[in-house]
Write a structure and sequence with these properties.
With 280 residues, the chain is mainly alpha-helical. It has 2 domains: 59 residues; 174 residues, MetI-like fold. The protein has 12 helices and no strands. The protein is globular.
Length: 280
């Protein structure tokens, strides 16, 4: 029995290690090529010569006139904050109503929203473009915020409703006896207790908003004055050639902040998800 358990453990560790290594290959390629000249990238994309490696390509990407990286950071940060404000502000009262109402209709409503988690955003992007066009929001930041917020709401609502179910109903009943209405109970008693799961949802939504390339590229358009840090990579791509000395450093500059945030906050992410998974 001991040998079988040891074999199973070794097999699991091996599988996880292989999958992790495979997932890290694109990151490795991006990092090593961010410090190499164009010719060396084309000749040896997987290797790096530390004698010729230089940070001048990162500096050139940072100071590029075709795409101001600082402005890209500003637009991406605005999307992170605005989309989270809309998604969390919408999901909190909806999750409270669903979690505190035992009627079958509200359970069906929750399943309806949860089903949205399994629909890729790219599938509904084309119909959304027609809707935004009819509303006059195509090519605008408000239109992009509305679309990206809508894709965040299903997950946010799901984890919020699960977390609220974990909170005892006696809190609501005690506040109700003191004369508090449902809105006051939600925002003054329940919402402060939701800080762990709100932080978790905020960080995970921020990762999605920051890393999204397709939605900003299609909704804002390549000629828009507003470009996110991820769509700025297109500044180095032309019809007949690609300047990899700008592409890879820009990619590294794009993922570095959000990767750092994830590494620092991953403990809070797992803690919030574990707390919300007690009752589902």
């Amino acid at each position: 029995m001991t040998s079988k358990r040891t074999f199973r453990t070794a097999a699991r560790v091996t599988v996880v290690a292989v999958l992790s290594a495979a997932m890290l290959v694109p990151m490795y390629i991006m990092v090593v090529n961010a410090f190499k000249p164009q010719q060396e990238i084309l000749l040896s994309p997987l290797g790096i010569d530390f004698a010729t490696a230089s940070t001048e390509y990162l500096e050139a990407a940072w100071q590029s006139t075709s795409f101001p990286v600082v402005e890209g950071y500003a637009v991406s940060l605005f999307l992170v904050l605005a989309c989270n404000a809309v998604a969390i502000g919408t999901a909190v009262p909806a999750a409270y109503a669903i979690a505190r109402t035992p009627k079958l209709l509200f359970r069906i409503l929750l399943m309806f929203f949860v089903a949205g988690m399994f629909v890729p955003a790219q599938i509904i992007l084309v119909p959304a473009v027609f809707v935004l066009k009819s509303l006059g929001l195509m090519g605008t930041l408000p239109g992009l915020v509305l679309f990206m917020s809508a894709t965040m709401i299903p997950f946010t609502l799901f984890v919020f409703s699960a977390y609220i179910r974990m909170l005892p109903r006696s809190l609501d009943e005690a506040a109700s006896i003191d004369g508090a209405g449902r809105q006051r109970i939600l925002w003054t008693i329940i919402f402060p207790l939701m800080r762990p799961i709100v932080a978790t949802a905020f960080i995970l939504n921020a990762l999605g908003a920051w890393n999204d390339f397709v939605s900003p590229q299609l909704i804002l358009g390549p000629g828009s004055e507003f470009r996110t840090i991820t769509t700025g990579v297109y500044a180095a791509v032309s019809t007949y050639s690609t300047n990899y000395e700008i592409v890879f450093p820009t990619l590294l500059l794009a993922v570095a902040p959000i990767l750092l945030i994830f590494v620092v906050m991953q403990r809070h992410i797992m803690g919030g998800l574990s707390a919300g998974a007690v009752k589902g």
